[in-house]
């Protein structure tokens, strides 16, 4: 039972990384912008957050540094695609390539660096419950915050005027512009929020999830987060569920290895990416369903003067 409790607890932690990034990207896409630079932003944020904790000794400073790095890179991306009308897909891929190279260069002096000992978190009373206590109630606060964030995002998108305006910009920016809404600024704010969330996810990886810096340590999670938004049909609750599903698949490989399953480690490492491909193939079989849920202007440039 203890091994299953450990698997469940690690699933929550792994799913938190994906949920943070995917929820941010969902806001991007609700505004009509697709950012394929998630992987690069997460890598830059991972080294920014790690370096900040090394020098400050405070994990929350590291989270702030990661969010700032992600928001700045997303802001640069936003200026290029929103004001200069560069191709969103090509610009996002360029951001990923830049992030991979820059983080590797910036992290050269931090490969052997060690973080100060991280505080231990536990909810008094609940954390002592057999089996469930260690799995559910000894997690980092961000594991619980991301659930609250998903709930807050549901309320924002479907119960507030600002959320309605954001969705209107994603559906028909021309109509929103005709009504007097600043479409470009709304899109930039959405993109920077998405970047900040990707940055928080990257910092969480290097500071809490695997507290060290290694080149390329995000290891494709940015791409999985991008796939999650489609898998979840752009709904926050489904993003959260999908993040834990993919987090569980990610951690299953380690559980199987610890259980003595005789499979090559490379095959087990393929599981989360294989699951991503399978899910996308299944979803793609019903393009009408995707079109019914996808923001109508997703990936399309907006020209205010036209």
Automatic annotation (TrEMBL):
<keyword id="KW-0812">Transmembrane</keyword>
<dbReference type="GO" id="GO:0022857">
    <property type="term" value="F:transmembrane transporter activity"/>
</dbReference>
<protein>
    <submittedName>
        <fullName>ABC transporter permease</fullName>
    </submittedName>
</protein>
<dbReference type="Pfam" id="PF02653">
    <property type="entry name" value="BPD_transp_2"/>
</dbReference>
<feature type="transmembrane region" description="Helical">
    <location>
        <begin position="216"/>
        <end position="234"/>
    </location>
</feature>
<feature type="transmembrane region" description="Helical">
    <location>
        <begin position="241"/>
        <end position="258"/>
    </location>
</feature>
<feature type="transmembrane region" description="Helical">
    <location>
        <begin position="33"/>
        <end position="54"/>
    </location>
</feature>
<feature type="transmembrane region" description="Helical">
    <location>
        <begin position="60"/>
        <end position="84"/>
    </location>
</feature>
<keyword id="KW-0472">Membrane</keyword>
<feature type="transmembrane region" description="Helical">
    <location>
        <begin position="91"/>
        <end position="111"/>
    </location>
</feature>
<dbReference type="InterPro" id="IPR001851">
    <property type="entry name" value="ABC_transp_permease"/>
</dbReference>
<feature type="transmembrane region" description="Helical">
    <location>
        <begin position="188"/>
        <end position="210"/>
    </location>
</feature>
<feature type="transmembrane region" description="Helical">
    <location>
        <begin position="264"/>
        <end position="284"/>
    </location>
</feature>
<feature type="transmembrane region" description="Helical">
    <location>
        <begin position="6"/>
        <end position="26"/>
    </location>
</feature>
<keyword id="KW-1133">Transmembrane helix</keyword>
<dbReference type="GO" id="GO:0005886">
    <property type="term" value="C:plasma membrane"/>
</dbReference>
<keyword id="KW-1003">Cell membrane</keyword>
<feature type="transmembrane region" description="Helical">
    <location>
        <begin position="141"/>
        <end position="158"/>
    </location>
</feature>
């Amino acid at each position: 039972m203890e091994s299953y409790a450990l698997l469940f607890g690690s699933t929550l932690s792994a799913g938190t990384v994906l949920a943070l990034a995917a929820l941010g990207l969902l806001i991007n896409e609700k505004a009509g912008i697709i950012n394929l630079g998630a992987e690069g932003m997460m890598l830059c944020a991972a080294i920014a957050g790690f370096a900040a904790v090394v020098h400050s000794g405070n994990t929350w400073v590291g989270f702030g540094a990661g969010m700032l790095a992600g928001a700045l890179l997303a802001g640069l991306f936003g200026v290029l695609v929103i004001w200069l009308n560069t191709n969103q897909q090509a610009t996002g891929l360029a951001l990923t390539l830049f992030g991979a190279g820059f983080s590797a260069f910036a992290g050269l002096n931090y490969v052997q660096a060690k973080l100060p000992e991280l505080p231990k978190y536990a909810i008094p009373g609940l954390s002592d419950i057999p089996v469930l206590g260690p799995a559910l109630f000894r997690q980092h606060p961000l594991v619980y915050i991301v659930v609250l964030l998903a709930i807050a995002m549901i309320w924002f998108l479907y119960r507030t005027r600002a959320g309605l305006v954001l969705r209107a910009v994603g559906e028909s920016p021309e109509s929103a512009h005709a009504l007097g809404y600043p479409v470009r600024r709304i899109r930039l704010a959405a993109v920077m929020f998405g970047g900040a969330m990707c940055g928080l996810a990257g910092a969480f990886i290097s500071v809490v999830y695997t507290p060290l810096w290694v080149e390329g340590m995000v290891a494709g999670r940015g791409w999985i987060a991008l796939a999650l938004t489609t898998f979840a049909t752009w709904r926050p609750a489904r993003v959260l569920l999908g993040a834990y599903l993919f987090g569980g698949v990610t951690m299953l490989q380690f559980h199987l290895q610890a259980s003595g399953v005789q499979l090559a480690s490379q095959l087990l490492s393929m599981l989360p990416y294989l699951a991503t491909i399978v899910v996308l193939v299944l979803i793609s079989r019903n393009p009408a369903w995707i079109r019914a849920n996808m923001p109508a202007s997703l990936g399309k440039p907006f020209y205010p003067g036209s």
